[in-house]
Amino acid sequence: MTDLACTGLWLAVLLAGVGAAIGLRALGLPSTYVRDLLHVGGGTWVAGWALWTSPLPPLAITVGATAALAVVPLAAPRLPLAARLHGAVTGDDERWAGLVQYALAFTALTAVALGGHRFTAACGVLALALGDGLGGAVGRRVGAHRFRARWGKVKSLEGSVTVAVAAALGVAIAARLFHRAAPPAIALAIGAAAALAEALAPRGTDNLLVPASAWAAAELLT
Known about the structure:
2 strands, 74% helix, 222 residues
């Protein structure tokens, strides 16, 4: 597949994700779950890394997506589509800045991946997508044992365990995609690093600290 075809494919996926978010919110799905679905779905990005022949198009996509997300709140009062997207994923305890940080983490780890560290970068991306995305959903739904770091949001033990397990699953997926060995003990250790970062992250920083912690742990342990 050429870079031009890959660009067209991923732009179509990105637009489909935006449309799905707006549509699901219009159908009544709470914004926090819409956000979780976007969180998890974004992890598919790593599956296309091996298809690019140049690092410029994928970096242009992630940089462009980050910039576009950053201006959505400014455009929302004037553009109905921006307003609908903004409303689809914000509300309650959710803030738009977290989505911008999510895209920024993807940009940084895409640069790392295309610089030759695809496996460890994928561990970071998938810890964010699967671990943080599923952990938040489980914590809100069934979390009963609550705790909070002094500088962070209220978390639950059930959510943190889900982050660790889902991030470890992300490591296993990354190992399969990029032909690397990742024994269960190593995968769980990387997942635990992601869960610890998510549990202790200062408010509004988990979308940066979770992938950074998983990536760093993968670099150290593999």
